[in-house]
Automatic annotation (TrEMBL):
This is SIMPL domain-containing protein. The chain crosses the membrane at residues 7-28. InterPro entries: 26kDa_periplasmic_antigen, SIMPL/DUF541. Pfam families: SIMPL (PF04402). It comes from Candidatus Jorgensenbacteria bacterium RIFCSPLOWO2_01_FULL_45_25b. Gene3D superfamilies: Protein of unknown function (DUF541), domain 1, Protein of unknown function (DUF541), domain 2. It comes from the Bacteria. GO terms for biological process: DNA damage response. Keywords: Membrane, Transmembrane, Transmembrane helix.
Amino acid sequence: MSNKIKNYLGIALIVGVLMLGLSIWSIAGSVGKSINPSSLRSFSVTAEGKSTQVPDVAEFTFSVITEGGENLAALQKENTEKMNKAIAFLKENGVKKEDIRTSQYSVNPRYESYSCGRPIYANGEEKAGPCPPSKIVGYTITQSATVKIRDFTKAGDIVSGVVKSGANSASSLNFTIDDPTSVQDAARAEAIAKAEKKAEKIAKDAGFRVGRLISIYESGGNYPVYYGKAMGIGMGGDAAESAPAPSIEPGSEDVKVNVTLTYEIK
């Protein structure tokens, strides 16, 4: 093989290596940009969207608390009968079985404690007097249930009526949205629309064009809980029999979602 041909082959080999290197570098750069958005010229905009909704569920907790002596079986029977009576009242007033959930059942002993006797002096030394151990003198049974009320026109009568039917404690009235998905979707759509409009305005003012959307970050979206103010029911008994049903108003509240959109700068 002549030197001329060898030179041509050498040049061709060098050119091929250079072209291969350029191709690899170009591919690596493209992949790097697609994986790491921070390598692009980019900018971010943030906007908030909200959706005003009226709660569709009122939720509260009631308890049957039974306290007595050492006959635990009798106390359990009494507690169960009162709870069953309260639940029967709820069902008679349109509350569905699936909207009644037992949230607590506890049996706690009650102790009688003795104070230790006075110090005893023997042979000039002070010694502790006898101190009998504590003993169980009775039990307290607490059974609680959480209830969802979907008909707000009955909410006041149900809350007060459950106390008259056997419960001796009612608390934690709050208003919620049973399925918050649609509310959050509406707030998110508004936030994205505002962010897109904001991005176009910034690009126009700064003299560049908005490129492709690189990322989107969302925060918020937790639907609020609306706490009622008319829950001064307290314990049952004669007072509960004469107490009027509380006035319950759900009101309304804003569900808010914040989004941050990051765009490529063209």
